[in-house]
Write a structure and sequence with these properties.
There is one protein chain. By secondary structure, the protein is α/β, with parallel strands linked by helices. The strands form 3 sheets. The chain has an 8-stranded mixed β-sheet with strand order 7-6-8-9-10-13-14-15, sandwiched between helices. It has a 5-stranded parallel β-sheet with strand order 2-1-3-4-5, with helices on both faces. Strand 8, helix 9 and strand 9 form a beta-alpha-beta unit. The termini are far apart.
Length: 417
């Protein structure tokens, strides 16, 4: 019999706490507050999901939507397999990668009586919903917000990914290991970009990098021609040997497309954050060719050596025909954690679910690895992979080409000849 991702996670729960699985499941209870579903049909619990189905993260947001359906199918199959007569149903709303729409979505969920929300994606959005979520005791589980400034204890914000305080160090290690010494950090002027750039500069300086120049750009533009021209001037005037780009998918694609036509920007190395990973726009011939020329490399949160991730990726490909992008595994695990936390809480109450979530996460292992939270509600243990854009017989594709362990970069394949 084939064991699924969720089954392995539950089996590990039982093994970790030292009790048989049957004993563990028997200690979960059915929350008292439900939707209006008749008791004879079981109980239905709504979980809000706010996704960037349009806007600056729409390319990967549309893939995330498929992950949501897969995760809820698996969750519902597992709870029924263990004898719970309950169903979890997603209520999906598009937030357009905008702060105000994310807040409006969470407020709409609250009016529906929803106490658990998956998302939003961007750190600026999480910041926008935080006060409302805390005041109304709504548990927010973001699979992709990484700004260190949101690592705050005792609130209702949880993140199934490590903060960028760790990834900034990983990206600095990668850039320095590749010979970068004088760097221009070209970044989104928002919660995510500003914090990432600041932490990167600190770590790169500790590694004895010669100089870091900070260059923020306005977000939400339809075209970044003038911003890329400013970047080229900055690189030329400072003698920088590398550009570090902290971006989302649509802005990164536009920036890289313009950079490809610049002799100055085509003559230095490029390093990227996780934001654009998986965006199909980056696989165009123009950007793919540019990536080869500048030997583009990026970092992304990725639990290494995990067969559960491989199984998850296979299921997503088989069912929906897509490859997992950045944070897909973190999103899947966020949904699993939410469901089991509701069951463990014993009541559909934000405070009870928040406490139960912490306990469930201590013993849950999924595609993104161990889910345990630190004191700030962020993923406690986070590895980072190295990704590249490589040429194949079908054009260009994203490929994980290595990992970062401490201060060491280990390449598993040679991405560029």
């Amino acid at each position: 019999m084939k064991i699924t991702v969720a089954q392995i996670g539950l089996l590990l729960i039982g093994l970790v706490i030292g009790f048989p699985l049957g004993y563990l499941v028997s200690n979960f209870s059915t929350p008292s507050q439900t939707s209006s579903s008749p008791a004879s049909q079981g109980k239905e619990y709504l979980i809000g999901v706010t996704l960037p189905l349009s806007g600056e993260l729409s390319s990967i947001g549309k893939i995330w939507e498929k992950v949501v359906y897969l995760a809820f199918d698996d969750l519902n199959n597992e709870v029924k397999a263990y004898g719970f007569n309950v169903t979890f149903k997603p209520v999906i709303l598009d937030d357009g990668t905008q702060d105000d729409k994310a807040l409006a979505n969470v407020q709409s969920f609250a009016q529906m009586g929803i106490k658990v929300v998956i998302g939003p994606a961007a750190s600026s959005q999480v910041k926008a919903v935080k006060a409302f979520a805390d005041a109304n005791h709504i548990v927010i589980i973001s699979p992709s917000s990484t700004a260190p400034t949101l690592a705050i204890p005792n609130d209702f914000i949880f993140r199934t990914v490590g903060s960028d305080a760790k990834q900034a160090k990983a990206l600095a290690t990668l850039a320095y290991s590749q010979g970068a010494r004088t760097v221009v950090v070209f970044h989104r002027n928002d919660e995510y970009g500003n914090a990432f750039a600041s932490f990167f500069a600190n770590y790169f300086t500790q590694l004895n990098g010669t100089k870091v120049y900070d260059l923020p750009y306005q977000t939400g533009l339809s075209d970044y021609t003038s911003e890329v021209n400013a970047l080229a001037s900055k690189v030329q005037s400072t003698g920088a040997d590398a550009v570090v780009l902290i971006a989302f998918d649509t802005d990164a694609a536009n920036i890289l497309a313009h950079a490809a036509s610049s002799n100055v920007l085509s003559s230095v190395r490029w390093f990227l954050s996780e934001g654009p990973h998986g965006a199909q726009e980056l696989l165009s011939p123009t950007i793919g060719g540019f990536a080869q020329k500048v030997k583009l490399l990026g970092t992304r949160p990725l639990f290494t050596h995990n067969p559960l991730y491989d199984e998850f990726a296979s299921k997503l490909k088989e069912k929906y025909g897509v490859e997992p992008t950045v944070f897909c595994d973190n999103l899947y695990d966020a949904i699993q954690l939410a469901g089991w936390a509701i069951l463990r809480a014993g009541s559909y109450d934000g405070d009870a679910i928040r406490s139960a979530l912490v306990e469930v996460a201590k013993h849950y292992y999924g595609p993104s690895g161990w889910a345990m939270f630190d004191e700030n509600g962020d993923k406690a243990n986070q590895d980072y992979g190295v990704w590249a854009i490589v040429q194949s017989g079908q054009g260009y594709q994203f490929m994980d080409v290595g990992m970062i362990q401490g201060d060491t970069v280990i390449f598993t394949t040679t991405p560029y000849k």
